Amino acid sequence: MRTHSVDRLGRRDASGGEVFRDYVYPSGMDAARLPGTDRPDQVVAHVDMDCFYAACEQRREPDLAGEPLVIGMGYEAGEPHGAVATASYEAREYGVESAMAISEALERLPRRAEGDSDADTPTGIYRPVDLDYYESVAAEVKEILHAESDTVREVSIDEAYLDVTDTVDWNGAGAWASDLRATIKSEVGVVASVGLAPTMSAAKVASDREKPDGQVVVEPGEVRAFFADLPVDEVHGVGPVTARELARLGIETAGDLADADPDALERRFGERGREIRRYARGEDTREVTPRGDPKSLSRESAFTEAVAAIEEKRRKVTTLARAVADRAGREGARYQTVGIKVVEPPFDINTRARSLPGPIADADLVESIALDLLAEFDERPVRKLGVRVSNLDFSAGEQASLGGFEGATDGGSDEATPDGDCTGESQAVAGQASLTAFDGVGTESSDPVSPDATDGADESGHAPDGQASLGDFE
Ligand code: DCP
Ligand code: MG
Description:
The protein is of the alpha+beta class. The protein is 29% helix and 19% strand. It has helices at residues 52-60, 89-92, 102-108, 131-148, 173-188, 200-209, 223-227, 240-248, 254-259, 262-269, 271-280, 310-331, 363-374; strands spanning 44-49, 69-73, 83-87, 125-128, 151-156, 159-163, 192-197, 215-217, 296-307, 334-344, 348-360, 382-393, 470-471. A hairpin with a 2-residue loop joins β5 and β6. α4 packs antiparallel against α5.
């Protein structure tokens, strides 16, 4: 096992001053920002709660523990509507999974009748989403994570990265992860899986590898081998659309992508082709950075097939505009600029924006400006639409975000950056009901190799029954 020396990274003292740094880089440059360089000694943890909404329900109602439990977004007791937000691992055994239509879940796992726990055929318990409760549980977990590290980046309600370089070395990484998981379990009553690795993307894959209730440590030098068999759609920045394209090129695993000809990838995907190849090779120079106030808030949604029909496009933009305005309201944000993103097949990203004389909070106006901007694309086939508000002003009203798990797009840029990038981190939820319920987080615009300059949020999302997936774009 490799021994880790934090000193070589240039530890910082409590006041934030640099203690020393053995590596010398050209002045003003940081190791992590040098193209092609790595920070072999960065220790990144990724924490992701297991079947989180279901786990919250089980904490509240311990009789649900060990049961096949399905949490439905837009679901009402006894009804077949809505989409699966998540399912307990017991329910997953029957093929029930996130973003599946409830009607389909019911076919795989019929609803248990009241008092009918001994039925011959397996049955499941269905519950509607109670986001307020889940957020309160997430806040408890978050408190524990912040106690572990000064540098925590929360990326969704149940997921965060921690930079633990200064406190964890590779010899102690496994023990640290066990302790953290035990603390979360005993203090909060929900289960976390943890991955530790020298890069953010490897840590994320690692936390997923042994779910549920698992942990994986990937040491420096092992990342590429660790990735080799990974299906290509699990590489950071690669979603279903890109994965399909890659499959056509015979690239199915991260190992294939790592070995692919970078020029060919660039011809097919532009600069992003090189970026995803770098991620597949384990090269990821991103550092964990905490989130500040978002620079913009957005929602985007993909059609399963390109759509030219005006009304269908207008309906989607209306829904997205409402969702964005609602989100801004909850964040306590007013906005001065309203924009749309229109993706034409295969990957042509168009953005349009209009600025107002001063900040406002007015859902009707967001909708009418967005629809107005859409008019230019009335006749054109479109595969994805997004609505964004930017030039945000948090000065009026209280800050709703509380720096909590609830994500926000954090692109670090407004109109200056063409918003081709979407959040690889964000996850999409299915169905109209989930519009406001699950938000991803964008990446820093300062990250020159962000793979999120891609196809976007829906790449990590799921679209059951032709439903659009939803996510942030920046
Ligand atoms: N979620 C949702 N819709 C989706 C995906 C997720 O509403 N399509 C919600 C419900 C999940 C929570 O977000 O509980 C966290 O998402 P995860 O992807 O981490 O899924 P889980 O925590 O449920 O399961 P896992 O154990 O695989 O992490
Ligand atoms: Mg989870």
